[in-house]
UniProtKB/TrEMBL annotation:
Species classification: Bacteria, Pseudomonadati, Balneolota, Balneolia, Balneolales
Keywords: Cytoplasm, Isomerase, Queuosine biosynthesis, S-adenosyl-L-methionine, Transferase
Enzyme Commission number(s) of this protein: 2.4.99.17
Gene name in the database record: queA
Taxonomic source organism: Gracilimonas mengyeensis
A Pfam cross-reference name: Queuosine_synth
Name of the protein this chain belongs to: S-adenosylmethionine:tRNA ribosyltransferase-isomerase
Annotated catalysed reactions: 7-aminomethyl-7-carbaguanosine(34) in tRNA + S-adenosyl-L-methionine = epoxyqueuosine(34) in tRNA + adenine + L-methionine + 2 H(+)
GO CC terms of this entry: cytoplasm
InterPro entries: QueA, QueA_dom1, QueA_dom2, QueA_sf
A GO molecular-function descriptor: S-adenosylmethionine:tRNA ribosyltransferase-isomerase activity
Described purpose of this protein according to its UniProt entry: Transfers and isomerizes the ribose moiety from AdoMet to the 7-aminomethyl group of 7-deazaguanine (preQ1-tRNA) to give epoxyqueuosine (oQ-tRNA).
Subunit composition and interactions: Monomer.
């Protein structure tokens, strides 16, 4: 398939800039691939589609406040640093973007916070593919640095959300599953779950299983090649435990229980873990797995996902799972029925 196959207009779409106060009150569109039917539900109804013995795979990554506003030494020019990922925790080295970038040189010192010495960093490299490498000049353990970044930083809301982040976003732009710090974008399908809804599903005999994929800023990067086979995803760190893999494999072997993935990041994690036998293998590493039509899913049997931006890799994964024509039909229906789109929007269950 080509990039232009995934193009559609967004000018008249309902794109919210705030999440719903009651997370599971979002709309839920249910796509049945075998019957080619579309149902319209509320997300709190999703327990109706989960059965005893099913396993529900979630991404437990936690978004950290990755945007820092500061000043450059001497000139006191305003700068903004976007923390992409931690490179060497022992040396407090980070891969970052800096705006404006043109006047930032190796050796420049950057200051953050109300006091000049509250938090400082030094630019140590400007040759990385993403921008710059900085070293925080902080005397203390890494956990104290993380606490300081949490205090001074702002949440990295998606670029199509035009408002500035507020303090409340540090909780609102997170899932209830978030425990492992490391993402700069939320696994938004998981944002619809509440503790009460999880318990209702568990009471039916299903089990929630964690995986980790630290979503990077590349999730918002435009695909710039018409031929999708030539697109390369940014690598992202993932982890899948032996317990999660073993329980996935048990469900797969049962033939009657489903493996349900919450979000495209969970799908990419479990599909990365596939062995030659078609079973899941535990492990950790980096994945740049790009899923687009046609693709044979080895593990994922149902998918919970949001409505995604045109020409995005997330939309392409959804099309690979649902079938391109069926998914495009669903998006047209969502538009007609004023579904809320993108990160703070409504959800879709594909079975």
């Amino acid at each position: 398939m080509k990039l232009t196959d995934f193009k559609f207009e967004i000018d008249d779409l309902n794109v919210p800039e705030e999440p719903l106060e009651k997370r599971d009150s979002a709309k839920l569109m249910v796509l049945n691939r075998a019957e080619k039917t579309i149902e319209h539900k509320t997300f709190s109804d999703i327990h109706e589609y989960v059965n005893e013995g099913d396993v529900v795979i979630y991404n437990n990554t936690k978004v950290f406040p990755a945007r820092l506003k500061g000043k450059k030494e001497k000139t006191e020019a305003d700068i903004e640093v976007f923390l992409l990922r931690e490179l060497m925790p022992e040396n407090m080295l980070w891969d970052v973007l800096v705006e404006p970038a043109r006047k930032i040189r190796i050796g420049n010192k950057l200051y953050f916070g109300e006091e000049d010495d509250e938090l400082m960093a030094e630019v140590v490299d400007n040759t990385t593919s993403r921008g710059r490498t900085i070293r925080f000049l902080y005397e203390g353990p890494n956990q104290e640095l993380y606490d300081k970044l949490d205090e001074l930083g702002m949440m990295p809301l998606p670029p199509y959300i035009e408002r500035e982040p507020v303090e409340a976003d540090k909780e609102r732009y997170q899932t209830i599953f978030a425990t492992e710090r490391g993402a700069v974008a939320a696994p938004t399908a998981g944002m619809h779950f509440t503790p009460e809804l999880v318990k209702k599903i568990e009471d039916k005999g299903a089990e929630f299983l964690p995986t980790t994929l630290h979503i990077g800023w590349g999730t918002f990067r435009n695909v710039e090649v018409e031929d999708l086979t030539k697109h390369r995803m940014d690598s992202e760190n993932y982890f899948i435990s032996k317990d999660t893999s073993d329980k996935i494999n048990k469900a797969l072997k049962s033939k009657k229980n489903k493996v349900i993935a919450i979000g495209t990041s969970a799908v990419r994690t479990i599909e990365t873990s596939v062995m030659a036998s078609g079973m899941s293998k535990p492990g950790t590493g980096w994945t740049d797995k790009f899923i687009y039509p046609p693709y044979e899913f080895k593990i994922t049997e149902a998918l919970i996902t949001n409505f995604h931006r045109p020409e995005s890799t997330l939309l392409m994964l959804g099309a690979a799972f649902a079938g391109y024509d069926f998914l495009m039909e669903a998006y047209e229906e969502a538009k007609e029925k004023d579904y809320r789109m993108f990160s703070f929007g409504d959800a879709m269950l594909i079975i």
